[in-house]
Amino acid sequence: xxxxxxxxxxxxxxxxxxxxxxxxxxxxxxxxxxxxxxxxxxxxxxxxxxxxxxxxxxxxxxxxxxxxxxxxxxxxxxxxxxxxxxxxxxxxxxxxxxxxxxxxxxxxxxxxxxxxxxxxxxxxxxxxxxxxxxxxxxxxxxxxxxxxxxxxxxxxxxxxxxxxxxxxxxxxxxxxxxxxxxxxxxxxxxxxxxxxxxxxxxxxxxxxxxxxxxxxxxxxxxxxxxxxxxxxxxxxxxxxxxxxxxxxxxxxxxxxxxxxxxxxxxxxxxxxxxxxxxxxxxxxxxxxxxxxxxxxxxxxxx
Length: 302
Description:
Low-confidence stretches: 219-238
Order of helices and strands: HHHEEEHHHHHEHHEHHHHH
Strand order of the largest sheet: 1-3-2
Mean pLDDT: 88
Number of helices: 15
Shape: globular
Structural class: mainly alpha
Radius of gyration: 21 Å
Distance between the termini: 17 Å
Largest sheet: 3 strands, antiparallel
């Protein structure tokens, strides 16, 4: 794992999966591709718009079953989805036919996003986040997810003034973000046409989380449509650790070598100290990771 992959891995684990359940997203994306009727597709899109607004939660007593898991589903914002306005359009045969064509597109075309507002009249002409979201759930490998947070990450890594919200984002911004997204995938040696949707979403999760963090970090700065990031913010970002960080590995091995802690307890203690969210395998099979690290020459100086 190189530094960039470790960086993505670290920040993706901090994604708000409780508010935006990944299993719900992946199951609905898969079902959208298999949809065979306007009503069925409309229902799946409604699910995803609720997910986008953070209105879906895992709940055993929920009434919505997706991928064998029960969820509760709250009402999205009226501008996001209104049954009388958006529902009627999404259930039309002409929309279904358009959506099926979008699913077959094999190269990025910003005109698809513009058609959502100019021809389908689903949202206002000033909207870019929701139209790009619709394009994404219809063809997730071609159209990346886009909102104020991933745009903020793009600007941060490009050394540009950061946006404060999504108010002034346009199709031009989305096109520029798409270029950045493709370059990032290339740097990660990821082929967006063949890699899993789950892997692409992991990368998006990292960018979204970084962008969200940057917004929180800017609360005490005066915003006039944008702000410059400070050295303090940059240092905070660079000091995030993950399971590939030498500091974490050395801590685990140091605690193991004391003989007073189990391998699992050593993992937990080190992860807690460095604020790392451990994948399940590190707790279920700590020995395999520790064996691998020792074969790699750890512990060492860091």
